[in-house]
Amino acid sequence: MDDQEVRRTSGAQEHGGDESTPAEPEAWKIRYEKSWLHRHCSSLLRRDKQARKAGQLFSGLLAMNVVFLGSAFICSMIFNKVAITLGDVWIFLIILKILALGWIAYYLLFTRKKPRAILYQDAHAGPMWVKGSLILFGACSVLLSIFQIGYITVHIHCKSLLEILFPSLEMLFICIQTYFIWRHAKDCTQVQHNLTRCGLMLTMATNLLLWLLAVTNDSIHREIESELKSLRAFEDNWTSSCECITTMCKVFQKGYILLYPFNTEYCLISCSMLYVMWKNVGRRIAHHHASCIKSRFQLHGVIFGPLFGISAAIIGICIFLVYQIQITSSSSNHQAFILYYSYYIVLLPVMAVGALVGTVIHGLEERELDTLKNPTRSLDVVLLMGTALGQIGMSYFSIVAIVATNPKDLLNSIIIAYSVSIIIQHITQNIFIIEGLHRQPVGSKETETKGEKGEGSSPKVCALEMKQDIRRVSQAYIQTYNHLNWKRKGLKEISSFLIMCNIILWIMPSFGAHPVFENGLEKSFYGYSTWFVIVNFGLPLGVFYRMHSVGDLLEVYRSA
Questions:
Q1: What pLDDT, in 10s, does the model give residues 210-228?
Q2: Rounded to two decimals, what is the model's pTM?
Q3: What is the DSSP string of 260-273?
Q4: Would you list the domain boundaries of the chain?
């Protein structure tokens, strides 16, 4: 302080000659104060960041231990059904569900009600397509539980009460969790950080274990169906001493098996959204980032992409029906496999070429890269790359098996071409989607035309106004298409085409088209158990990849 007083006195004495001299001590003082404030704030930010990292680490370790313990239970049940039964696994999962439901109730009733609990919301988290998928698959999962309860009720004389308790609690868990994610997916919780992180990780671990159990049970069903080829044998294995004779029992049983893939998809979607919520705990979003909400989804007059995409979907549905009819008949299934694989061989290269063209257009664009931190976008990229490994891995296993045995056979050659096409299409589509997700969205310059009607109009006037509205909407649709430059037109056409193709490629395996189970080529090479382990983990990931790609392509379409 003495040195500062001396400098201030000497500056006052020299004030008459040079104006810059007295400003130097003041500027030095301001720089000193700013530097101290900067150091103080930086230390607080570092402490906050360290506390956040510590909380994430602790909650992550909690989830890891729960998942490992549950996986040990499920694997023990598979390999030693005497020591660890399915009932033991259900009891463990019931405890996890009760704990997760207790935390969700606490969050809804207490945590979120605290002052300044939710100061920020992540605009990118929980897009509408994800929430719609969550509702759809959640409803199918609830219906699955209803079918399971109905099936067990028919055989109540030879079933335990635990077999009714588990699906009943499953319905309650799905309903409450779906409401929680739907309403609060965008929350950036600013209070009770560690408790919230641990609750989210516990809920996510529960969903992961439910997914693992669903995959293993689904594998048991498909193993019986593909190996024995008999509904009677399936019933004997599934019901043990209980016979499924009545029509109502068979309806419950078939509905139960048909809805299994939707339950696995629901668990994966829930895990992805819970992970984003976990990343957003304690996150502070800048004002310009929080207000940067993407524009509404509009068709923008795309023509050729939806046209070719719908055509591919209709053809795929027809081939899927023919395949299902032929594969269940007593005649040879050789032609059914050729027809099914040939459809993929034609469609997949077209999708790969479209994705490559879209990637080139991205490179020619002048849009800036979006460099802001976004947990949702980072998770999208990880899920795209991770789930693509399911189909890619299965394709490589098929290629090795066929090349090592008899690659010159017609069906084997077609399967090799199908596997190579799968690998190339996944890689090119991932590159196209990731490039699109990391681009700044184009500002919407088009104007919307809205027609208004009077409340007291006569029927003739209303009909006339309706015709005028239809004509006006059609003209606006064509006009918006003409106003787009060729780069935006190309991206929107390619994105819409890939959306429709991925939808049909999701529908076919989801509703029972699994030639890798029925052709027997890979199974005879790798052995029964080994091939089913490969397929039962690769196939659900492949189904989830197609569904997730549809959502990401919608984002690419909207941002173009």
A1: 988 887 765 555 544 554 4
A2: 0.72
A3: HHHHHHHHHHHHHH
A4: 63-290, 308-441+492-559
